[in-house]
Amino acid sequence: MATALKAFLNSPVGPKTTHFWGPVSNWGFILAGMADMNKPPELISGHMTAVMCVYSGLFMRFAWVVRPRNYFLMATHASNESVQLYQLSRYARAQGYLEKKEPEAQQ
After folding, report:
1. Secondary structure letter of residue 15 according to DSSP
2. Range of the domain at 33
């Protein structure tokens, strides 16, 4: 047990590196998005939510190609992507972008 903890502490993505603390700090975005799920969708900024979706998508790719591969960072951005896409769908529904269109009656 002690050797596993020591290996984690000294690993290239362990808590002594920014590869660990960067993803930890990004959980603030996820928690804020989750807290906003109960707020009215009219308060959602569509532009900012779209930017957060692009940001998380890009950084999921970065977390995959960086060496050493950072699975924690990838999981963090995948979680943020999920939360932001849900918020974006709430915004789109509130703005009327996702309404079902009735076919026009033929005369």
Report:
1. T
2. 16-95
